[in-house]
Every structure is written in structure tokens, then in C-alpha cells.
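Need C-alpha cells for this chain, all 417 residues.
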Amino acid sequence: MNSDKPQTNPQQPEKQSAALTPNAQIPEASEYVKGHTPSENLAGVISAEDGAVSAEQASASEAIEPLPELKLKDLEPTAPKVEASQSVDEEDTVTDLSQTVAELKRQERDLREKIAALQQNQTQLISEQLAKSQALVERMLEEGLKELEQRKQALEISVEQLERRRERIRAEMRTSFAGVSQELAIRVQGFKDYLVGSLEDLVSTAEELELSPAPQQLQPIAPEEQPINSRANAPQFAKQEFQEQTRQIRQILDQYRNLPDYYGPAWQLRRTFEPIHAERVSNWFFSQGGRGSIKTMGSRLQNILIASATISVLRTIYAERLRTLVLANTPERLGEWRRGLQDCLGISRGDFGPERGVVLFEEASALVQKADRLVAQKQIPLIIVDETEDQINLSMLQFPLWLAFAGDPQQMSSYQY
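Here are the C-alpha cells for all 417 residues:
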């Protein structure tokens, strides 16, 4: 019996050791459980519990086919692989995120660069536009200044031309007047004698008219003759009753000769009035009674001066009632008359016209019609005839005031054309 026990006993420890082996390896199985399914874990638990079965049960279980041993050595590398795969996934995720962040940063950097470039372009465009605008404004200002300078220069040239023309006209007037005075100095005494004789004739005529009883005898029939005296207001400078007008005319002529006013009011003579001119005008007023011809002075400018003095005197007496009618056969000569009257009387172009102070005519018939209308309107027409008119319309002789310049047959006029 004893011999059997020792035989059996060694077997039991082997079984026990075999049964205890799973318990001793449980910690390793627990590590295995972490990477396996619950069914696999349950199998491991069952194998662990079987290790605690008694020896009797162990002998009984020998008859059953033993379960295959779990090879922990084979399971040990699995956990690191799982962890490695997880770490690889995490690393991939981190890599992807880092790449995404890097891409976003790159996009952000690109956007910032684009914004900076756009801002720079905008600033450059604005500066270019401002530069263009400033250049355009400067160019416009320069052009405007150039135009103003050109206009200023043109005006200065015009002013200089007008000043030279004025000086030339003044010099010509002085020269011509002085020349005429020198040429006629020898005749001065004869003119004085002629003037004295004319005045004596005037005085005698006035005395005869004053002593004549004829007006008293005709008083009863005066109403019947009233239509004949329709020109009662016509000037008659040779009669005694106009002695006050005679004195006024002489004062005006003396003023023009001794105290010329070159900047006086309009319709007043503004030129030098020599004794020869005063003699011609006085003769026309007092010897011819304001109706007759005067020998030409040799130039239209001199004739215009005499006519201007006559117009100025009559304008002083009759004011705006006096209307001057000038007759010349060409527009050029009428233009000379207009310019000469403007220069001598200080009037403007507005004073020339059908209803103005001076009217210019090329035909005598039109002048006569205008004079008739003026007389009907209680106006006083003064007819002035240019020297180039060879024939005088007899209808002009019916008016109270007319002055014609007679040409000198022995001397050609200096302005015939």
C-alpha cells in the first residue's frame, strides 16, 4: 500500500502543479484580456477556475480531452501592435492637423500678401490719379495764364497803337494848323479888314431894319400872313433883334480860340481853333446869315474842324433841337466825316443815326425828305455838304441853316479819290 502511495503522491503534485500553473500565469492572462473579446476572457477565467479543482476532479478530467494551452508568448506582441496602430493613427491625425494648420497659415499668409499688394496698388493708383489731376489742373492754369497773357499783350499793343495814333493825329493837327497859319499869315491883315467891313455892313443892316416902319404897317394883316411866317423860329443872325445871340456866338468862338478844352463835354469843340477857322465860321454866321458856302481848307480834316465848330456853337444855342445832316457821295467819305466829328466833338457812334444828333446821307433827295420831317417836328436841321458834291440840290436851299464847302478850282483837293 505504501508503495502505491508514493507512486500516487508524485502524480498528485504534478497535477497540482499543473493545476496551479494557470493561477501562476493569471497576471499574464489579464494583460491578454485587455486586447481580446469577452468570450476569450471568459475562457481564460474558466481555465483559471479549473486549476483550483481538487485532485479528484483533476483525475476525472484526465479522461476528457484537455483544452489547448494559451500561448501567452504569442499574445504578448499583439498589445504593442494595437498600441502602435493607435499611435500611428494618432500620428496621422496629428500630421493631418498640422498639415491643415500649415495650409491655413499658408493661406492666411497668401491672403495677407494679397491684401498688402491690393493696398499698395490702391495707394499707387490714388497717387497716380492725384498726380494726373494736379498735372491737369496745372496745365489748365498754365493755358489760362497764357491766354490771359496773350490777351493782355494784345490789349497793350492795341493801347499803344491807339496812343501812337492819337499822338500822330495831334502832331498832324498841330503841323497842319501851324502850316496853314504860316501860309496865311500874310493875309491876316486883309482878313481883318474884311471882317471889319463885314461888321460895318452888319451894323448898318441892323440899323436899317430897326428903323423900318414896315412891320407896324403890316400889323393889321398879320393874321393873313401868318402861314407865310411859318419859320418864325428860324435863326437870322444878321438882324438886330438877334444881337444877344450874336454876342453869345462871339464869346463861344473866342473861347474856342483862346481857351481850347481838349477834354470838355460832348458836342463841345475839343481841338485847336486857329484864327483862320474862327474867321470862316464868323463869316458864315454874320455875313451869310447861316446859309452859304465856305471855301474849302484843302483837306477834309480842316473842313470837318470848321463844321464841328459850327455844330458846337449851334448846339449851345438850340440844344437837342439841332439836327445835323451830312451829305457826301461815297460811304468812305461819310466814314471820314463820322470819325472826324467823333474826334472833334467827343461824341460816340450812338450819336449817329436816323433819330440821333447826326445823320449821314449819300443822296440829296433823302436828305431833303429828312429835313422836311424835322421842320414839321419843330426841329432845326443843319445841312453840311462835302466839297466833292459838284452840284447842289436846290431843295436844300429852302432850309434855314446849310453849310457847303466849295472846292478850289486852282488847287486839287488832297483827298480826292
